[in-house]
Amino acid sequence: MLIIMSKTAKQSQIENIINRIEELGLKVHVSKGDVKTIIGVIGSERIITQIPLEAMHGVEKTISITSNYQLVTRDFKPENTVIDVNGVEIGGLEIAIMAGPCAVESLEQLILSAKLVKEGGAKFLRGGAYKPRTSPYSFQGLEEDGLKMLAKAREETGLKIVTEVIDSESAPIVAEYADVLQIGARNMQNFQLLKAVGKINKPVLLKRGLAATLSELLYAAEYIMNEGNYNVILCERGIRTFEDYTRNTLDLSAVAALKQISHLPVIVDPSHGTGRWKLVAPMAKAALAAGADGLIIEVHPNPEDALSDGAQSLTPENFNNLVKDCVLIAEALGRKITL
Amino acid sequence: MLIIMSKTAKQSQIENIINRIEELGLKVHVSKGDVKTIIGVIGSERIITQIPLEAMHGVEKTISITSNYQLVTRDFKPENTVIDVNGVEIGGLEIAIMAGPCAVESLEQLILSAKLVKEGGAKFLRGGAYKPRTSPYSFQGLEEDGLKMLAKAREETGLKIVTEVIDSESAPIVAEYADVLQIGARNMQNFQLLKAVGKINKPVLLKRGLAATLSELLYAAEYIMNEGNYNVILCERGIRTFEDYTRNTLDLSAVAALKQISHLPVIVDPSHGTGRWKLVAPMAKAALAAGADGLIIEVHPNPEDALSDGAQSLTPENFNNLVKDCVLIAEALGRKITL
Amino acid sequence: MLIIMSKTAKQSQIENIINRIEELGLKVHVSKGDVKTIIGVIGSERIITQIPLEAMHGVEKTISITSNYQLVTRDFKPENTVIDVNGVEIGGLEIAIMAGPCAVESLEQLILSAKLVKEGGAKFLRGGAYKPRTSPYSFQGLEEDGLKMLAKAREETGLKIVTEVIDSESAPIVAEYADVLQIGARNMQNFQLLKAVGKINKPVLLKRGLAATLSELLYAAEYIMNEGNYNVILCERGIRTFEDYTRNTLDLSAVAALKQISHLPVIVDPSHGTGRWKLVAPMAKAALAAGADGLIIEVHPNPEDALSDGAQSLTPENFNNLVKDCVLIAEALGRKITL
Amino acid sequence: MLIIMSKTAKQSQIENIINRIEELGLKVHVSKGDVKTIIGVIGSERIITQIPLEAMHGVEKTISITSNYQLVTRDFKPENTVIDVNGVEIGGLEIAIMAGPCAVESLEQLILSAKLVKEGGAKFLRGGAYKPRTSPYSFQGLEEDGLKMLAKAREETGLKIVTEVIDSESAPIVAEYADVLQIGARNMQNFQLLKAVGKINKPVLLKRGLAATLSELLYAAEYIMNEGNYNVILCERGIRTFEDYTRNTLDLSAVAALKQISHLPVIVDPSHGTGRWKLVAPMAKAALAAGADGLIIEVHPNPEDALSDGAQSLTPENFNNLVKDCVLIAEALGRKITL
């Protein structure tokens, strides 16, 4: 922590701050410039936050030198985290392909979807049983019935199930059926929910919030890991910007950056990230090239009948072609997709 | 709903869509242009959302003509909603002044704060007992102990209590102590929480999310009202933009717009909205001029000792001056602040 | 300037950097923490930019402590700059009211507009003769003919003329007719144009770019002042964000901040800032309360016939009412609008 | 064009609008819904913009159905535009690699850079002789001396020269030396400059503005093409968002979208797009996967000595590795990079 004193700071104010810091058992290092004095604090930034430095007389601003991440960074764990989802790995050489409809609509639709995406190369079936929706008047999901359908689809296909959990009350029941618990973008800073899934022994797929910085995403992962669950998968799904051609702006530099900062696997959702099915395939390939460990893609057996997000869903045929293209990209990157 | 068909749409595709719409009992109105055909759908847009129009062959895009708001707009209730908080009104002629520390830290601090902000002109005491924090390692609030301190401060000063509720589990206990339940920006689309406070018979102060559109804020209010609780206060608290001089960008045109669209009271939080105490007073005055029904302001008896957000807290003296200035602005606007 | 060395920086790398800095005649102050070493550079930051510190081995990041503003800040000139526009002041007690159509369309329209806005309380007539337009196929302005019409309107009404200059070639001719040269938002970082108007002896109204930070706006003003023209008026006109209800997001905290940082007058354009005429009046009042020294407002004698931006233009009647409301706000703020 | 009338629009207002449109020789198609009337306008949207529809009584909003692009879209020219830059193609199967220092600093540095990037696989040398800089006190380029050095570097290496033109005055002299004229992000809507380069018979590399929508970028290209110069290369270089880990947010979905909408070649600048050299290689690969026709990359023989942007420059060694990786990606995509 560096404390930049204002040009007009008095000596007594500087001493006051030094005293407050030293009372906490920390050391300081004072540097007097031509214009401003800078106080360097040596020791944990977690302790120094007990003093409201920026509100103290004479302080212009403070600058944090070290982050407070404990568990998410490569400082904590240099090698990649590889998560074993009941026999299928995420974060290793193999690219994880997750696909399926946005929402679970019926058993028939789901089983058909599952078979089609499995044929196309998916190892995970995605599909929402609990759906967070902007309007209270929109379809909110089949809830436990939907979970049962997902379990049935797993039984029939062997695909692992990824599905969203929207509150801590329903977390246990979702965990009963799911292989991977998804936290949606709107819940990325629902800290109670993060703590709840941190206590469950299931991998968590954590989607980046619509306006969340990388730092906030990493702290959200830190919430989960801090409760004991180290199996966290980060997911870039687009951020909100002024551009309105796409539904969101898919931030692939976030993928490259997260892979450098963190040991956790990172996957990308090009369907929500763009909101336009014609952009899904190029952005899926670009995501892999940026370093993603997997993809989560909306596929619907018949997009014309989807109850939500139809316009961003791929047909099974388009999905098959996308995976084939991705196989070539994965090889060029020294990774693989096993069909 | 208008459906814009692509240039290359075939007649059979146009007819297919018309059939699907008519099967739902809706009427269509087809308009053939030089280049494109447009299908107008007459009837409820809630019904039409059952068809995934944008994914259907030949459809270029759809355009929504009417919104699906039911309860929040002036179409539903033309006159202003005035909320009675145990004898103090929000949304009438009188400007509601809410003030206090960001977090409840101790009984002494809170009682002192309460007395000082009451002297300054506040009718509501704000202060968090449950604190949603970006990092799991930051101070998370005194929880029920904090609530008890708030109740004690009310007892001593008569101020009404505004405090945050962070999940549906703790909502009942917060409601036991609070006069107004605050939903924080990060929870604006925590739909389970919105439903939970919608079932509680207490006014709700709903903060706009960091990247929420006005439409999403209004739908969040709609979630609460749809459960039966019509006492919702909207709160603008800054949105996330590229500008980094301020912590957030306080969007006062949102205040003017919300007052035109909705009958609900709108208040402004210039403390979080700017993150800089020197900007709080001018933005508080600007908020009133834009049409705000109230202000929620961080005041700390001694900002140098605040456990969080110290840099945006006002001293009691600065708060007093701010309210005095606001009295003059309120008069110029034909409103009032009773000291 | 502070240089934060990475955790893994070697002693030789630290010494290399110190040597490079000392070669430039600057002093350093080294502070070794538990984890990282920090090198403070004492002396001008303009000199240190000759070294590409962030690319040097062992450097994690650099932090600028002082800005390089020379002329725009209150450090340079503590008191407000008051600009005399041929007898009418901007930046003093009196609020400057500028109004008129977006584009000059015809002499009749302009003379009528000028008379109407003068009646309503304006002291300045705005109107574009050169129009920067997104599409090459949109109306691009009447150019010199438009300038002549503006001069004629000044002759008939005594209003001062504010009009846009779009390139350095046409700057001299615009300067011949105008009282205030406007630099549009899209040209805020057209540095050649900034230098050109910096050499002309006329006040410049500098609009903030669509995605310009406050710092960039101040540096743009610095470009003009650095050429010798100290009569710069800053103008907030809305920034680009994700919110699409308004055309732009009017950032009034920028107004409050600019008034604190800089001695230059600041005005606000609520017409372009919101893009909706119903929001212009509340945002004009809010702008004054935030500290603005003036307003620039689109008024059209008959908005239904305007060639551009009709939807954000006020009728003369609405403009009159707006000014009357602003008179009351100005008084409450200890300022004035002379009708 | 669709005109949505407000709920409360009167029949006389509807008729007034229809009359105004028909006076222009256009046809209308009126559709009366339960709640609102919609007027469809059949014919050119360029004609209809003469009427300020949104300001007319009874109009709620207007919706544009067709764009006004004339030249940039695949409607105008379905096949890819391949630009021949004195024997080297951009937009064909071969990926165009442009590399070099941000600014021309000296002849030795430039010749060395040119030789190194040529060895690494570049066919184009980039380097600024005229530098638009935020602060007037920053290094502004060597101007014509820099151009001469670029010409000398071309002579020695055969690389084609890409360099920035910052105003219409200096455009002819830059055109004398350059093979490709670059328009920088801050000048994307400097319409005078766009017109100027539109009249010069040299390819133009047009960078997307910091907050420009795809539509605005395409219209900027339209300005150039409308003057007769059809050799325009679009360049994505990052947009401004709330995320501050990267200098900008590189929007690769823009690349995929532009390739679908337009026939023009699209290249990507991952150096400015991320501002961090460690992210340049993954984002270069991702750009190709998203469909880019080329890359423009900052390389400096010794980044530690670069006068600007050092932190985002690659070393020649890193550049060589990047190109080698890109060769594999290009092959996987059915394209090629000839070394």
Key attributes of the depicted protein:
339 residues; homotetramer; 35% helix; alpha/beta; elongated; 11 helices
In which order are the strands of the major sheet of chain A placed? 7-8-9-10-11-12-13-14
Helix share bin of chain A: 25-40%
User: Which percent band covers the strand fraction of chain A?
Assistant: 15-25%
Total number of strands of chain A: 14
Chain pair with largest interface: A-B, 50 and 50 residues
The stretches of 5 or more residues of chain A where confidence is low (pLDDT under 50) are none
Order of helices and strands of chain A: EHEEHEEEEHEHEHEHEHEHEHHEH
Q: Give the rounded overall mean pLDDT of chain A.
A: 91
Distance between the termini of chain A: 51 Å
Summarize the main sheet of chain A.
Answer: 8 strands, parallel, barrel
- Based on secondary structure, the structural category of chain A is alpha/beta
For this structure, the quaternary state is homotetramer
Shape of chain A: elongated
Radius of gyration of CA atoms of chain A, rounded to a whole number: 23 Å
Write up this protein.
- Four copies of one chain form a homotetramer.
- With 339 residues, chain A is an alpha/beta fold.
- Chain A has helices at residues 11-23, 45-48, 107-120, 144-157, 171-177, 191-198, 214-226, 252-261, 270-274, 277-290, 316-332, and strands at residues 2-5, 27-32, 37-42, 59-63, 83-85, 88-90, 96-100, 124-126, 160-164, 180-183, 204-207, 232-236, 266-268, 294-298.
- In chain A, strands 7-8-9-10-11-12-13-14 form an eight-stranded parallel barrel, surrounded by seven helices. In chain A, strands 2-3-1-4 form a four-stranded antiparallel β-sheet, covered by helices on one side. Chain A has a two-stranded antiparallel sheet with strand order 5-6.
- In chain A, a hairpin with a 4-residue loop joins strand 2 and strand 3 (37-42).
- In chain A, helix 3 (107-120) crosses helix 4 (144-157), helix 3 packs parallel to helix 11 (316-332) and helix 6 (191-198) packs across helix 7.
- Chain A is elongated.
- The termini of chain A are far apart.
- Chains in contact: A-B, A-C, A-D, B-C, B-D, C-D.
- Chains A and B meet through helix 6 and helix 7 of A and helix 6 and helix 7 of B.
